[in-house]
Amino acid sequence: MTSKQLTLSWVVVVAALLLTACNPIPAEPPLPVSVSTPGPACAALEEMAREALASTPPPPARARFDADDRKAFAGSAFGYLCELSEEVGPRESATQEEMKAAAFLMDRFTEFGYSPEIQDFGGSKTAKEFAGPPSRNIILELPGRGEGVVILGAHYDTTPDSVGANDNASGTGVLLALADRLARPPWSNQMVSVFPFTLRLIAFGSEEIGLRGSWHYVEQLTDAELDDIRVMINLDSVGSGTILSAVGNPWLIRHVSESAEREGVFLTTSRRGTSGGFSDNFYFGYAWVPTISFAGDDISRINSPDDAIEFINPVLLGDAAVLILDLLASLEDLQCRCR
Ligand SMILES: [Zn+2]
Predict the structure, then answer these.
(1) Given this model, what pLDDT does residue 131 score?
(2) Cβ 137 vs Cβ 119: under 8 Å
(3) Is residue 239 assigned to a domain?
(4) What is the whole-number distance in angstroms between the Cα of residue 83 and the centre of ligand 1?
(5) In this predicted model, what pLDDT tens digit does every residue of 181-229 receive, in sequence order?
(6) Tally of domains in the chain
(7) Could you tell me the sign of the dihedral formed by the alpha carbons of 263, 181, 186, 295, in that order?
(8) How far is the CA of 26 from the centre of ligand 1 (A)?
(9) CA of 167 relative to ligand 1 center, distance in Å
């Protein structure tokens, strides 16, 4: 991989904002050193991405995250994306490759300070169990100072013979970058977050063969556990193109549109009542959980060998990370204005 092969395209940020929203989250401290220790290839690519990000226009003055934050998120997510796509490689659903990717994620989440839970599914003929080969979800939780649960999810498997740089090492990379940051001040202290709800992060398995991981997760919840889940945020293929899109519940779309304006992130939005797109948000929406799902505007190479790292735009990864953190910080009461 040479620098010429790394095609980076750029989002032009419009800085013309007059927002007056309050900010319940304290300012970020100096950027911490990431616990990530990528291999040499990814370290080199991550460095190239960080250099390319140097020319990113500054966000608006009222933004919660400054230019250095955005670059740090983008670089961090890009590094994890690189590890998944270049070092772990193809992660075909419900195979040993997928298990290897799950082990990689367990290592990373544990390094950040979480106690991740493995949720196995498939491989059983019992009536309650979905037929199909074994696979697993990885679940971690960051308790907050209030009731209710917000789920942030991304699938980590791929179709055969695809390294899935965009679909969905990009979403998983952002999930890892956020998990890393959220485990430390000012976002949490001793693994209790500043949010007024529990944040549950889930890396779903076997999305590519019928949303099996998210189906299993929703299916095994009790009624009370399902009632506790107030919001599901999904990340799938957020790494290619020049602009992010968000599809979902109108209440969440309103919140994230405000976040995008505040942070100077271009975002296209589409309101849909109970679900948006066929990804892991689907079964949550089907169970009446308000959902929102993020993607980039170029999904032309997904599910193919062409879904490679040279088509990743790291700017989108940073955009997705700050949008989600800003959205989480703005969800104070979790009361869905669902109409
Ligand atoms: Zn996907």
Answers:
(1) 61
(2) yes
(3) yes
(4) 17
(5) 999 999 999 999 999 999 999 999 999 999 999 999 999 999 999 999 9
(6) 1
(7) positive
(8) 34
(9) 5
Q: Measured in angstroms, how far is the CA atom of residue 320 from the centroid of ligand 1?
A: 15
In-domain check, residue 30: no
Q: Give the tens place of pLDDT for each residue, 128-177.
A: 555 678 999 999 999 998 999 999 999 999 999 899 999 999 999 999 99
Q: How close is the Cα of 278 to the center of ligand 1, in Å?
A: 9
Structure-block tokens of residue 284? 């949550």
182 Cα–ligand 1 center, Å: 24
Most distant CA atoms of the chain, gap in Å = 58
For residue 1, being part of any structural domain is answered with: no
Q: How confident is the model at residue 53 (pLDDT cuts 50, 70, 90)?
A: confident
Buried b (16+ CB within 10 A) or exposed e, 256-270: beebbbbbbbbbebe
168 C-alpha to ligand 1 centroid (Å): 5
Tell me the CA–centroid distance for residue 257 and ligand 1, in Å: 23
Give a yes or no: residue 18 inside a domain: no
Q: Is the pTM of this model over 0.85?
A: yes
